[in-house]
Amino acid sequence: MNLYIVRHGQTEWNIIGRMQGSSDIPLNQVGRQQAENVARRFQSIPLHAAYASPLSRAYDTAEAIVRGRSLFIEKEPALIEVGFGVWEGKSFEEMDSVYAEPFHAFMNDPEHFPAPQGGDDMQKRLVDMRAFLQRLLQQYTQGENVLLVTHGFAIRILLSVIMDAPLKYMSAFFMGNTSISIIRYEHGRPRIELLGDCSHNPEGIGVG
User: Fold this and answer.
1) What is the pTM of this model?
2) How far, in Å, CA of 87 to CA of 81, rounded?
């Protein structure tokens, strides 16, 4: 099985620097163009299955990629972005001033520092992602290509599970808007072939 992991396109909250989390913020005009750009990257790649976060910015990105194919996009709860509770909608400047201590503690070690009120339990998110990955490994055979369209923090959770590494180490990986990462499984073992590539966008990387 080959996993093609794509982050969603740009949103207005990406531009102005607000915590999105599980808030359903749609793609902006640039984000829709980025979705078309990444879709062109996939034109020559056969896809056997497609899964996306239920949030519109990810699902609409997935729709652009699979357009013209006889392929159903399955909405997968494990791929939804982490819920940040009362932090959602706050600017990163506000996070650094009003919520600096809990915010940086959570971002540096999310497995051991809780999200704010109303936020996700990271241990549960890891369990759910691990179960989803196991389902994929059982369902798809070597060589089959599976598209996953999701979010920045959710990709960190997925990589943590794939690499069997603490989630805190995943903060080193920046995934720009519509970045592509490729993980190939051979005999049940993962191999990272590509990580966070945004070369299909004129600006090279996403904004946040």
Assistant:
1) 0.94
2) 14
